Amino acid sequence: GAVVSQHPSWVICKSGTSVKIECRSLDFQATTMFWYRQFPKQSLMLMATSNEGSKATYEQGVEKDKFLINHASLTLSTLTVTSAHPEDSSFYICSAQGRDEQYFGPGTRLTVT
Amino acid sequence: AQSVTQLDSHVSVSEGTPVLLRCNYSSSYSPSLFWYVQHPNKGLQLLLKYTSAATLVKGINGFEAEFKKSETSFHLTKPSAHMSDAAEYFCVVSDGIWTGFQKLVFGTGTRLLVSP
Questions:
Q1: Which residue in the set B36, B49, B103 is minimally distant from A49, CB to CB?
Q2: DSSP designation for B104
Q3: What's the rounded Cα separation, in Å, for the pair A76 and A98?
Q4: Taking the alpha carbons of A46, A85, A21, B110 in that order, is the dihedral positive or negative?
Q5: What is the pLDDT of residues B21-58, one digit of tens each?
Q6: Chain A CB within 8 Å of residue B49 CB
Q7: What is the DSSP string of A81-92?
Q8: CA nearest B108: which of B33, B22, B14, B1?
Q9: Chain A residues within an 8 Å CB radius of B101
Q10: Which pLDDT tens digit goes with each residue over A11-58?
Q11: Which among A32, A44, A104 is the nearest to B101, CB-wise?
């Protein structure tokens, strides 16, 4: 099946710094990718829909200036958490829209100290 | 708006016994429904999906689910649990409208525990 990778798998950063997470579709092209956030023992919440070559569409309540999304190619989308704070610590998951289903990456654990 | 309710946060079964994970949905449209499984340190994997064809859907690893419109349910079952089935399971709904992609709404998840 189709494979989506994320890098890094985990990252620790200091409060106030920015961190970039990459999401790649390894064996298919994805016009649309999605970014989710998962809190411990909770569900996945859609943060934004990322379309190649255009601006991302953010869900209500998600700060677009805080969570910068870039989808510069059909195989790569990036999420940058700017001026990170401890409350941004979470598990971030991306997915890529395939022909019939979304394929999910393994997730990135972000810890902000 | 679409939503799903997973009625059990945890389900414990013994190996070899049946599995039932319950899910109820709410949708303004004819929904697409999915079950995903999440193993630690692995990406979510699609188990099965319902997209208005047969109401009994068979998926991978022996799982199946039945779409019951009258009960707005989409429960996941497996006749015989295996130790490797222990994971987090998510019931997911989409509005079924294809615009090149589908936005998914996840339930809160059910953790399946399988004991020897």
A1: B103
A2: -
A3: 14
A4: negative
A5: 999 999 877 888 999 999 887 789 999 999 877 899 99
A6: yes
A7: E-S--GGG-EEE
A8: B22
A9: 31-32, 34, 49, 97, 102
A10: 999 999 999 999 999 999 988 999 999 987 778 999 999 988 888 999
A11: A32
Is B97's pLDDT higher than 70?
no
Beta bridge partners of A49: A34, A57
Assigned token pair, B25: 């949905």
Contact B23, B108 (CB under 8 A): no
d(CA B82, CA A17): 44
Q: What pLDDT was estimated at residue B84? A: 95
Of the candidates A98, A96, A14, B13, the one whose C-alpha atom is nearest the C-alpha of residue A106 is A96
The three-class DSSP label of residue A84 is coil
Report d(CA A37, CA B55) in Å as an integer.
Answer: 31
CB pairs under 8 A between A and B: 48
Distance from CA of B6 to the nearest CA of A (A): 11
The amino acid present at A99, given as its one-letter code, is R
- Residues of B whose CB is below 8 A from A46: 103-105
Q: For residues A51 and A68, what is the distance between their CA atoms, to the nearest angstrom?
A: 13
Give me the residue from B43, B46, B101 closest to A97, CB to CB.
B101
Whether residue B96 is predicted with pLDDT greater than 70 in this model: the reply is: no
Task: Return the amino acid letter for A60.
Answer: Q
List the structure tokens of A77. 């989308």
**Residue contact B100–A31, C-beta within 8 A:** yes
